[in-house]
Amino acid sequence: MANHKSAIKRIRANATKRLRNRYQAKTTRNAIKKLRNTTSQEEAKTLLPRVISMLDRLAKKNVIHKRKAANNKSKLTKLVNKLG
Questions:
Q1: Left (φ > 0), alpha (ψ -120 to 50) or beta: where does 2 sit?
Q2: Contact, 70 vs 60, CB < 8 A?
Q3: From 5's CA, which of 39, 45, 63, 80 has a CA 20 to 30 Å away?
Q4: Each residue of 44-71: pLDDT tens digit?
């Protein structure tokens, strides 16, 4: 267990950030699944910018790697374009 006051505070802050990161990552994964299961192009075109924004936010905060975000955005964009 940590002995310093600042170390104890850091443990608490890390736990809070971990929960927030997990929530945002899981929400993004669910949005990606919803987009992949969409069959209409109109609905997919409205969902795509929201999902891309979520991926960019996760990459910016280093929750996921920036190249993973880029690969996901590329694949999802191809999928939406193929629907039409």
A1: beta
A2: no
A3: 63
A4: 999 999 999 999 999 999 999 999 999 9
CA 51 → CA 14, 67, 68, distances in Å?
26, 15, 14
Domain count, the chain: 1
Q: What is the pLDDT of residue 30?
A: 98
Residue numbers of the domain that contains 66: 5-83
φ, ψ of residue 37 to 5 degrees: the values are -85, -5
| Burial class of residue 52 in the structure, from the number of CB atoms within 10 Å of its CB (0-12 exposed, 13-18 middle, 19+ buried) | middle
Please state, for a pLDDT cut of 90, what percent of the chain lies above it: 95
CB 55 within 8 A of CB 73: yes
